Amino acid sequence: MHVFVALADNQHQGIVKVAAKLGNGDDPQHNLYWGSAYGMKTYFARSAEWKLVRTEKGPRPGVLERCMFKHRDEDVWLIADAYQGSQIKKATTEFLEAAAGVNPTRIEFQNNSERIKLDAGGAASLVVYIGHDGLMDFQLASLPKSGHGAANQVIILACASKQYFGTALRASGAYPLLWTTNLMAPEAYTLKSALDGWIAKESHGEIRERAAAAYSRYQRCGVAAAKRLLVTGW
After folding, report:
1. pLDDT tens-digit series, residues 36-63
2. Structurally, how many domains does the chain consist of?
């Protein structure tokens, strides 16, 4: 899995302003979507099911930090990239390219005595976007077209992602395993619950149920409301 996280940024994004520390798009350590209690890095690092194996600073332009997580019971790896908040357009574009299956990449590193080789970008089995819905604020000059025959599965945890990402996702050829119909808090517990079902090879409906239950529990919005917000498929 490859997760693209656009760090929350009070200055460069059209978000509802958050505390300055949480909304500093140049500071992954304290950012709302990365280093806070329910941010991608912190939440998964504290999870009983996942192990943080490796962290890299600035692996490529626009990405401030990369984390590699290994599932403790299954042969599943998760790559997560924290994009600088001002680079949200780049994060969105590269997520859609990965969804389309273009620009497949291979990440390699040494883990103790083992050489790890991970498929990333357009070669990942599941591609995820987390953060502000930048397509509310800007348009893309072009839309990535499908780069192979098989449709990638994607999860988009951003406000009203079904409305704003729909055209681009259809062009990519990817399938929306989970996305949203309204405003939401794109925090990591929703993704974690969805991935539990995905790893267990549950149906799309069951994965959605898991995600909605988690969102309801943390946001205290009720399961019915969470199921209206989090949907699967077209």
Report:
1. 999 999 999 999 999 999 999 999 999 9
2. 1
